[in-house]
Amino acid sequence: MTAPPSLDAPKIGAADPRHPEAPLVLDTEPPRPLGFRDQAAFWANLGVSLLGFSGAAWVLTPSGHPQLSLLAAITATVVGTVVGTAMVAVSGILGTRTGAPAMAILRGLFGTKLSYLPTVLNIIQCVGWGVFELTVITLGVEAMTDGKGPHWLYVLLAGALTTALTIKPLGSVRLLRRYVTIAVGVSMLYFTVQLLRQDTPSLNEGSWSGFLPAVDSALAVAVSFVPLAADYTRHSRSTAKSFWGTLVGYSTAQIWCYLLGLLALLQVGGDADKIFDTFLGVGAGWVFFAVLVVREVDQSFANVYSTAMSVHNLLPKVDRRVLCLGIGTLVTVLAMMVDDFSTYESFLYLIGSVFVPMFAVTAVDFFLGSGRRGWDMSQDAPVRWVMLVPWALGFSAYQLINPTQLTGWADFWPRFWADAQNATGIHATVWTSASLFSFFTAGSATLALAVIGRQRAVAR
């Protein structure tokens, strides 16, 4: 298979070959210093999240379903995480193959102008995640200090550290591997031992009826990194190192993180608002919890940096450091204004409904469709309107099974999809998975377009 071309006019841009850094503008060939350990450590750190601990609540008790048994919740976590992480890892292969950031890769799928649509959507989701992460870091600090100290100051400090890390992103990845990963591993091991010493219900005490919605919840968290993966794997030495580093690092860490979240939730009756109290309640818990709070900055770092990479697809000549400073400031200001997490679960599902089918379309067309001949990712790449069709079909399949519930959409959006369910006869059941149905719908439609395209080429 011929590797697709990178962005036009590539130039080697690493000033220091001993400590190469990410390019400052879009049309510069990226250095590739990251090996398996770098990628595995980076993605392992992203797989551990304070949001993941509390997010385990939506696996344990999926919306509209009774509480799952511990065995069902663990199984749902493993299945959803591995499937979602596999999507992230495959997305990372595209970054390693092309050397392009994630949103610039979509120039090959949609054409340059049309790629601006998913780019804007990704900017919105990355900014939203960045705000969530800075707020969670602040909540973690407040949990350790019993609410003492000004909220705005914690947000400001977390935002400043986040923004500083984005200025030299490859240096930050190396820093995470050398120091942070070990400290996080020790902290996670300590909490695992402490929580397993507590009384827990029987593995089979509970229900399996919400198993697939729980899988979707775990999968959606992993899938949120699909449109970010190539921003980091473009710096990998090989596709094998990027794929296995991502898959092993992230899936292991998220499964472990959710397992701790499930155990902690069971200690507080499933109340996600009290989950931090569980960690702080064990002996010397605040020391290890502090490590996890500080480490959370790598989540906000990834969201701010990937926002800058997305904006680069729109403004390819602007210095990424300027973009990072501006975006870091914006996310910090927004985090000072937002403190409502009531729509977090719906936000996850909305992300899944957009990016699960988009990944399916991207992967199928890259490996089995026009990508086999090489995508045009230049500034003048022609628009491919037809690729919106499978993406829209996949999005519709997801919403038919699991309509998004968000403030402001409460009237029109669910009612629209309820009417569509009645018209099509499609209704969610305990065996339907919005993510998997969406993926197969979009992927099958894209494969059909690829077959038609090959038949026309043969006829010509």
TrEMBL record:
One GO cellular component, as annotated: plasma membrane
Subcellular location: Membrane
Alphabetical list of Pfam families matching this protein: Transp_cyt_pur
Keywords (A to Z) from UniProt: Membrane, Transmembrane, Transmembrane helix
UniProt keyword Transmembrane helix, yes or no: yes
Coiled coil: none
Transmembrane segments: 40-60, 72-95, 116-139, 151-167, 179-196, 208-230, 242-266, 278-297, 318-337, 349-369, 381-401, 430-452
GO molecular function: cytosine transmembrane transporter activity
Keyword Transmembrane helix recorded: yes
Membrane topology note: Multi-pass membrane protein
Chain residue ranges for the region called Disordered: 1-23
Family classification: Belongs to the purine-cytosine permease (2.A.39) family.
Protein's UniProt name: Cytosine permease
Naturally occurring in which organism (per UniProt): Wenjunlia tyrosinilytica
